[in-house]
Amino acid sequence: MIDFLALLRQAQSAEMRQGTSSQLNWWWLDDGILQFQPQCASETTVVISAGIHGNETAPIELLAQLCLDLLQGQLELKVNLLCILGNPYAIRAGVRYIENDMNRMFCGAYHDLEDSVEVRRAAELEQVVSKFYLSYPETQRFHFDLHTAIRRSYLETFALLPYQVQAYDTKLLELIDAAELDALVYHNAIGATFTQYTSLNFQAASVTLELGKAKPFGQNNLFEFLAIDSILRNLVAAKNNPPRKKIQIRTFKVVDSILKFSEDFKLNLADDAANFSVFHLGEVIATQVNSDNQVLDYVAHLDKVFILFPNNKVKLGLRAGLVLEEITA
Ligand SMILES: [Zn+2]
């Protein structure tokens, strides 16, 4: 029995690298990378990733358990499936990242960074995912990248859809709705996230899911993650989902990114301010001084905007927050 999370946490390789049962074949490809194939050919090819940020433990535990249930025959497999624990070094250290945030280095962005464990891992993940998708041509591709936020959120669970030119997949939108998430956010520009990579290069129906607040291993109440857990299990087993029970999902689009280009950059928010904090027209959202010593304020330019992922501490040149507009019908 392969427990890829236990192996990863002990920094061990699997003794058995592949196996077979009446239902499936599996391959342990590397630290935290497990591939499954059903015995009957499938029209659907799915990547599920967690732990791109190492301290976001609940989705890591959820994915590890899903894999164990597949291996033990507790969960049926009807799709081609690749399960990834993204950043083994950061997972072992219990931190978000070691050198650089991995979810800002896909789509080849790692080429611009100095060599590090994360640069090498991002390159490896791009290769493994590419090989996996291309080995199942003519199938429908999905990618779910699971996260938990590092701060409170007025809307606790939400989905982020990467920018893409192709239409957003109807089945993916149905799954997001059925997952009882509170909000859905459409990106307005190409980023360097893992889901951007799979959407852009393989036309996968890709989504980044923020599933609540990060806690240490063993302290998660996995009950809070039941809805998303059952949606992923239903996808893997090709089963239908029950209808949504919560109120209608709220929908937002990104209208701007706030970039940090000076060390004195300061958001007009408490350090622990929640995601989806609100600013009204004309209110100052952030200040910084440019190289000519001019104070440049970032001001809300719509009646009401919402700030996502506010973070004073990002490195220079990176985004310190996203500005959203609500588009719920
Ligand atoms: Zn994350």
Automatic annotation (TrEMBL):
Molecular function via GO: hydrolase activity, acting on ester bonds; succinylglutamate desuccinylase activity; zinc ion binding
Pfam families named among the record's database cross-references: AstE_AspA_cat, AstE_AspA_hybrid
One GO biological process term: L-arginine catabolic process to succinate
Leading EC class: hydrolase
Domain of life: Bacteria
InterPro entries per record: AspA/AstE_fam, AstE_AspA_cat, Aste_AspA_hybrid_dom, SuccinylGlu_desuccinylase
Keyword Hydrolase: yes
Reactions catalysed: N-succinyl-L-glutamate + H2O = L-glutamate + succinate
Keywords of this entry: Arginine metabolism, Hydrolase, Metal-binding, Zinc
EC numbers, comma separated: 3.5.1.96
NCBIfam families named in the record: arg_catab_astE, PRK05324.1
Signal peptide: none
Residue span, Succinylglutamate desuccinylase/Aspartoacylase catalytic domain: 44-227
Gene name of the encoded protein: astE
Family affiliation: Belongs to the AspA/AstE family. Succinylglutamate desuccinylase subfamily.
Binding site for Zn(2+): H53, E56, H147
Keyword Hydrolase: yes
UniProt name for this protein: Succinylglutamate desuccinylase
Cofactor: Zn(2+)
Free-text comment on the cofactor: Binds 1 zinc ion per subunit.
CDD domains attached to this UniProt entry: M14_ASTE
Active-site feature positions: E210
Role of this protein: Transforms N(2)-succinylglutamate into succinate and glutamate.
Pathway participation: Amino-acid degradation; L-arginine degradation via AST pathway; L-glutamate and succinate from L-arginine: step 5/5
Residue ranges occupied by any AstE/AspA barrel-sandwich hybrid domain in the UniProt entry: 248-326
